[in-house]
Amino acid sequence: MQYELKYKVIEPKRHTYQNIIDRFGDQPATRYQEATLDIEPRENFHYRPTWDSERELYDERYSALRLTDPYTFADPRQFYYTPYVTNRAAFHDEFGKTVAYLESRDLLAKMPQGWQTVLGTVVLPLRHYESGAQLVSVAGARFAYGSSLSQCASFAAFDRIGNAQILSRVGIALGSGTADRLGLAKTEWLEGAHLQPLRKLIEEIMVTDDWAEGLLAVDEIDKRIYPAFYSGLDEAALLGGAGAYSLFAQHMTTWFKDQRKWLDALIKTWREDATHGEANAAVLDRVEREWGARAQEAVDALLAVAADHIDLDSLEEA
């Protein structure tokens, strides 16, 4: 008996899901598009929230910042679950190697005393700030209208947990394997005069009703803390004999650059929206003006303490 094998190409009836075809036509879609577009329900809700009967479970009115179509915003990183998890696993693996190197040589405990003081009394307490920022991001994940936005807020919330864990691991390394430094950092967060403006600020942001304003208010703090205490002190550490600080700070700087990618794109989309752009711009300018001033005051209090213990003049001159 003789067999003749042939192959036949079966053309798909369509290349992607109907909701994507409705937007872009029948053409192959990216995984990001398939995992993001129109995922969040918009209609046929069974009930309204008992705590806010004037709104739907998913409702654009949870924020003053709106988009005509929320899916005009797309994450420039094209993150959905799998690439996000893969990217962050690699990120924390790299940080783990850094910590292992620092611990194997007890480098943090060998830094000049001034740098150890700044790390213990200013930087390590920021893990509590990260925890507050995580809750603000969780609110964004819940109340943002459109899965392209809520997805980014969800990932940012997980990132904040990761940032807090990075600071915790640095604290344990600074304490030579003990949690003593973390206990002191918590006391500083609760009682240190230099940290109370920041603590008060993040707690007020946590109870802000508008999820987008909360995210932007945290960003006003981030825009000052990360350049000052991570990328900024990174250079000062190299000049001041505290290379161990530089090794850890580079990871925080890397995360902040990644965070800015989606947030800057979202702000640009809000401003350029055909229907709501003008109103959005007024809200964005107000948020930047009001929360930015308070953020600067809070970060200045931290910088003043840092300047008491390490030489920041060389950084300013550079």
UniProtKB/TrEMBL annotation:
Q: Which reaction does it catalyse?
A: propane + NADH + O2 + H(+) = propan-2-ol + NAD(+) + H2O
Q: Which top EC class is given? A: oxidoreductase
Protein name, UniProt field: propane 2-monooxygenase
Q: Does the keyword Oxidoreductase apply?
A: yes
E.C. number(s) listed in UniProt: 1.14.13.227
Which InterPro entries does the UniProt entry name for this protein?
A: Ferritin-like_SF, Phenol_Hydrox, RNR-like
Q: Which species does this protein come from?
A: Gordonia humi
* One of the record's GO molecular function terms: monooxygenase activity
- Provide this UniProt record's keywords sorted from A to Z: Monooxygenase, Oxidoreductase
